[in-house]
Design goal:
With about 270 residues, this protein is of the alpha/beta class. The protein has helices spanning about 35-50, 110-125, 140-150, 165-175, 190-195, 220-230, 235-270, and strands spanning about 10, 20-25, 130, 160, 180-185, 195-200. The chain has a six-stranded mixed β-sheet with strand order 2-1-3-6-4-5.
Length: about 270
Amino acid sequence: MPENTTIRAAAYTANGTAREQVALPAAVFDGTVNTPVMHQAVKAFLANRRQGNAMTKTRGLVAGGNQKPWKQKGTGRARQGSIRAPNWVGGGTVFGPIPRSYAQYVPRQVRALARKSALNARARSGAVIVVDRFAYERPQTSRMAAMLARLEMSDKKVLVLTNGVNENVYLSGRNLPNAQVMPWTDASAYHVLWSDVVVIEAQAIGHELAPVADTEPEGKKTDKKKRTAAKPDKGEKRTAAKAAADRTAKAAKKPAAKKKTAAPKAKKKKKGK
């Protein structure tokens, strides 16, 4: 990518209303994509998450078998020295795993270059979106889910980067399976490459976007029209209520008629006696 080329990204409000595109800061988004460095950083990140506590017992750790199972000669069987030998069932394991550390050290400059390359890779593919401000007064998962649905990102893995620690935004996205919320400074190359779309708060990258009035999506407007058209009139409601009352009245009369027919039969039985 040629130098001094500004990368622009789509911008939206916190509710998903589109606004003018913004230029991403050239200090981070300069078009640099170093694939080997990204591979090294991601490999080290995954290795550092391993616990490394797998372990098997060697013949010195297996209990029992402190003497020869049988004498050396005269039995006709193969000579054996201990039931803890690896060839015995329940014996020790040869060259099995032991607790170890899988930690890999990556220099700070290499990690920074990998993170920068990952962000540039997403920006060059149009997968970076800027949101003016996440003004969440309280945790609200439905609001976060509605924004992702409006931006057509419900079925994608989304990384939301906020300006500093924002607990309300974090709690709003914590229960969404395909969303991950963290501060801008905490995101690593692995987190950026894990996501399909990166949503960045404008203040995190040094932008101060003026507020814009939110507009309702077109789908919601049509839904409201459909709902109002489907609602019955007051007259229709009254006729439906009358029909329901007539049904209940007929159902109440039927058992009374059955009792009248049953009474004379009982009298005939008494006369026969």
